């Protein structure tokens, strides 16, 4: 089966992590989008899907376009006569990911320059965290501007919430709730030492209380965005509430749920590369599903037979997925 494919779809994303590809894998499984795939190979920088029929590859590319901003280049190669071709679809996924901090150029409208990517479907949702102004960019709009992320998930810093004060009431933006609060925070790594206090305005005020932890970005040390040099900007931008300290108490205990995976080979170029980082990112992906109900509505979650209900501590404030949401394996 090594060479009997007719069309290949190469999924690539120019980022340093696999969070988007983990999510795409679950969308593909839920919609059975790779049903006609004869081989799947994990590469060092993405995933290759092979098909025995060009029309199946085209259908697969159309599916990817429905669930994420992407662009595609189509090539063909004559492999034998008469007119026997192999087709390659090179799919580039937008490098902008959920929870990225973005510095928009002024030409892109009345928002920013600092915005957070709050969701990626076939559109990119952007939110200005200190005003709640927002916008949505479809694939065509994104690729015509191709803005890039200033900071991404691997650069998140753990902060301790020292105080919060409400600025505005809770609002709903396409099903996601936000509320503006002023917050005083300090780095968890500095607490107990000679620590520095940062004052910031956050869209997460309705979720945060004194003593909570939150993950965010340090903007004051960032100097690679020219738009920030000519405007006032917060020193810290909070991205999400963190449950890490509370999760550690449950470390090693099985979840009530599990995911299925695509059956794929691992190319030699991908073997042994960043395995620990990828495992940590997959664990973070599982936590994202637990914390984000909207995100997991697009994913099929299955009951874990090894799970014992008594292992959930009531009132421990750690997000978990109710048994009623799970499918039988």
Automatic annotation (TrEMBL):
Q: Name one GO cellular component term.
A: cytoplasm
Q: Chief subcellular site?
A: cytoplasm
Q: Which GO terms describe its biological process?
A: protein transport; ribosomal large subunit export from nucleus
Q: Which UniProt keywords apply?
A: Cytoplasm, Nucleus, Protein transport, Transport
Domain named 60S ribosomal export protein NMD3 SH3: which ranges?
96-135
Gene Ontology molecular function: any one: ribosomal large subunit binding
Q: What InterPro entries does the entry give?
A: Nmd3, Nmd3_N, NMD_SH3, OB_NMD3
Every 60S ribosomal export protein NMD3 OB-fold domain range: 156-241
The listed locations are: Cytoplasm; Nucleus
Pfam families per the record?
Answer: NMD3, NMD_SH3, OB_NMD3
Start and end of every Nmd3 N-terminal domain?
3-93
Q: Where on the tree of life does the source sit, at the highest rank? A: Eukaryota
Protein family? Belongs to the NMD3 family.
Function of this protein?
Acts as an adapter for the XPO1/CRM1-mediated export of the 60S ribosomal subunit.
The record's section on PANTHER family has: 60S RIBOSOMAL EXPORT PROTEIN NMD3, NONSENSE-MEDIATED MRNA DECAY PROTEIN 3
Q: Could you tell me what this protein is called?
A: 60S ribosomal export protein NMD3
């Amino acid at each position: 089966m090594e060479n009997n494919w007719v069309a290949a779809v190469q999924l690539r994303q120019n980022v340093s992590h696999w969070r988007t590809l983990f999510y795409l894998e679950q969308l593909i499984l839920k919609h059975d989008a790779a049903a006609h795939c004869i081989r799947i190979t994990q590469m060092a920088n993405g995933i290759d899907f092979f098909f025995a029929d060009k029309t199946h590859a085209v259908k697969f590319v159309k599916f990817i376009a429905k669930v994420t901003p992407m662009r595609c280049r189509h090539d063909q190669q004559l492999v034998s006569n008469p007119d026997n071709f192999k087709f390659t679809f090179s799919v580039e996924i937008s490098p902008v990911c959920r929870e990225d901090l973005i510095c928009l150029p002024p030409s892109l409208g009345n928002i920013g320059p600092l915005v957070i990517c709050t969701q990626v479907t076939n559109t990119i949702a952007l939110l200005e965290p200190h005003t709640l102004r927002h916008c949505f960019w479809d694939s065509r709009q994104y690729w015509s501007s191709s803005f890039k992320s200033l900071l991404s998930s691997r650069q998140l810093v753990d902060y301790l919430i020292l105080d919060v004060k409400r600025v505005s009431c809770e609002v709903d933006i396409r099903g996601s709730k936000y509320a503006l609060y002023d917050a005083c925070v300090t780095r968890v790594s500095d607490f107990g030492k000679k620590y520095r206090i940062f004052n910031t305005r956050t869209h997460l005020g309705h979720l945060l209380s004194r003593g909570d932890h939150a993950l965010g970005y340090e903007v004051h040390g960032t100097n690679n965005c020219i738009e920030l040099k000519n405007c006032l900007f917060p020193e810290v931008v909070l991205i999400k509430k963190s449950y890490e300290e509370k999760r550690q108490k449950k470390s090693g205990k099985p979840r009530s749920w599990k995911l299925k995976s695509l059956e794929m080979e691992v190319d030699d170029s991908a073997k042994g590369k960043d395995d620990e980082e990828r495992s940590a990112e997959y664990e973070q992906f599982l936590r994202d599903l637990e914390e984000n109900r909207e995100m997991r509505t697009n994913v099929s979650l299955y009951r874990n037979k090894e799970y014992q209900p008594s292992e959930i501590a009531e009132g421990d404030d750690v997000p978990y997925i109710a048994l009623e949401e799970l499918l039988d394996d």
